[in-house]
Queue: 3 jobs
Job 1
Amino acid sequence: MAGVGGSVELRRSWQRLLGLWTDRPRRKGTKIAGRYTIYDLLGMGSYGLTYLCTDEQTGKDVALKESKPSKGRLAVQLLNREADVVNRMDHPAIPKLLDVFTYRARSYIVTEYILGETLEQCIFEQGYKYTEQDCLELVKQLLAPIMHVHEQGYIHGDVRIPNVILRDGQVHLIDFGLARRMGEPLLPELKRRMRELPEPEDELAAPDQDLQDLGHFLLFMLYSAYEPEKGRKPASWQEELKLTPEVRNMLERLLGLRPGYEGGAVELQADIDRVLMKL
């Protein structure tokens, strides 16, 4: 059995090295399909690379996402699913799908480029600190595109600070790579890659999952203003954060520590409005 384990680890190491070579980002100035000229790398995910490009036909900046060769058919499948989901959306806070194509054995999708900063950049690079009111107003804004996604019969599945862009004070929800139709389980290939996660692998897609993500999102935003005391040992967020009872209760409901929002995003929106009036 030790020999088998060693061969599996060797194969995984070889796959990682192969990925480093085949998935390396393309150089600035590279032209894709004779139309999209790469200007910068916006991000690298598990299954794709996203570039800021100029569309030579329109002169506009666009976001071009490329499947990772090392991930094979799964990356292509996920990219095609993402294109299908985004194409069904029609909301000002969600980038529009502009193009889908294959070029030199790689799959691509092109969406609107949202010029702004992710909330991750705002916190870690700009050093922004968000008050309770700031956080609730951002979550309230974010609920609008999330509710639209739910109305189309899908969940986003990955509501996190890197996937929320702030432009001129308005939030935009990006990256639909993990979006699923309501009632749909995770792809078997993804489940095998997510075995370390504590959540049930076979949980079917439901709006509650996006609301729970919103709870973690809100908690992360609130921690942006947290200043730990010297010498104090780490404690629970309930102990570390000085929150109003209303915000604490909202977080506990979103995170599953109390009965949740049976009325979904609509009930959460009403709760946020009520709390904001008191702040």
Job 2
Amino acid sequence: MITLTNDKKNLFDYYINNLAELAPYFHLTTKQTWKKSCFEDTDFEGEQKFKELFTVVAREDEQIEGFIQFGLSSYGYDENVEKDFLKPIAVIRQIYFSERKETIGQKLINEALNYFKQNNFSQYYAFFHALGMSFTSSHGKLSKNFDYIENLLLNNGFKIEHENVYYRKILQNEFVTKNKVILKHDCNLNECTENITFFLETEPIGKCNIFYLPDGKRVYLRWIFLADEFQNKGYSSQSMKLLCKYLYQKNCTELHTDTADSNFRAQRYYLKNNFSDLGRTRSYLV
């Protein structure tokens, strides 16, 4: 018999045994780091992500068969992708259960749908990108490895809202030819986040922002850009090589990133610079 409960006992063990490494952003981590990311999460600026967040666990004979998190975020985003604290987001943050256990999945999603209905939310999301767990660098989208969970969402009225391509590069000691591009790190925004500026001799030509994942070995590239007048001249690839060498020398082993499925220029750039395409991730909307 399946029972739904708020009891979170052994939920971390469920993550480690059933989810870790099944998606490219689900890494092995410590229980303390996972719990903070799951239940008391903050964003890159230190803001609480959720006004209210509910966790419901499905158990059968005390064994966890799945769980869901849903609630109301502390903020949304305006048309300029700036935080708007007057527009919180109703969202299913995550839902996971075993394949071929659709009945359990339906029971869990009903909990969220009832919450949205009771609070008269006319619009709500699932797997909203920026509201993922911070130990994954807040990558909130659902990996295509869980296509049966996507089917559940689609069968309950959700539509695909946005799609990204996820990339990873195994770091090594990059050979960087002598060139005029140099890298300088700016003041760290916090202990986990760093801004880096690329210079052509003394002129700044671009920047990037990186997030060090809690395991100390993986790094997430949040964004990178070069000014238009310096593109298509080889400086972009030189900058990436400098970044990878810099991280390798800090004993980091992997660099992760993602980009929109419509951003073909960025996709070509990552593949050209020896990133591996690890598949699509999606968010959903009603």
Job 3
Amino acid sequence: MDVDQLRSFDRIVRDGSFTKAAARLNVTQATISMRIKALENAAGGPLFARGRQVALTERGAAFLPYARRILSTLVESEEAMRSMDRGHLTLATLRSVVPTLVTPPVSDFLAAHPQVALDVEEGRHRDIAEWLHDRRVELAIIAWPNVDPLLDPLQPLALFSEKARLVAAPALAAAIGPAPTLDRVFEIAPRFVTHLWWQVTPEAILAMNRRARTTSLMPLEPSRALIDAGAAVGHLLAPQVDADIASGRLAEIEPVDMPPMTRRSALVAGFAGAAERPLVADLAARLVARAEALHILEADRR
């Protein structure tokens, strides 16, 4: 039984496929099959029921938590030694908070610690959940509450709550009028744009999707371009748009029958003991201070 066999076993469980696992690990399918055969010999029986779909046997399900515990301990020790040798840490973050919440603290941190190797990785919640599962990062900003089965129960270091404002170009907002109903908004607005901000899309957003004439799910940059051009309405996070609303570049639309919308996120440690490291604690403190300055800090639980 070796580490490559355990990693292959874990990857197959997560991907549900020998072929996908081989591609993710950059090895041939024959290599994956040989590793699993050797692991099954060591474990005393089949770990997978092979067929049209790959499923764990009872033996495989019993073995899984032990395999993951071994892998987690190994990766955690590798990360600890790397951090001690180089002064290295990694922050993973939701893309949507990079410009407002993450960029200023990271710049200040690197100015204070010019010799530290800091990596910042951005992605969607599901990407970050996988990095946390693999113990690849010391700190992460994820969607909250966490319902991802990949992750063990997490205790957040801090909770953030951002208002999601329904906005439009000023001319489109004027055509819709003040204090409209949602029916009025979607009678005038040509398109409703949405984003993958939540693990589970709120029912209010789903209801608005059903009422809109046309909808688009897209990243921030193209949705913002459509909104600026008067071709769509959509929710944007308050830290991203409050200055533009104040300057008149954008207008907030406040339908009388739309509930308040917020997006919650959390700052979490990548693994046990990470938050106690001085460099990690310093970066966490800067992120929390920035959240407080943006008025999005819901709770500081450090």
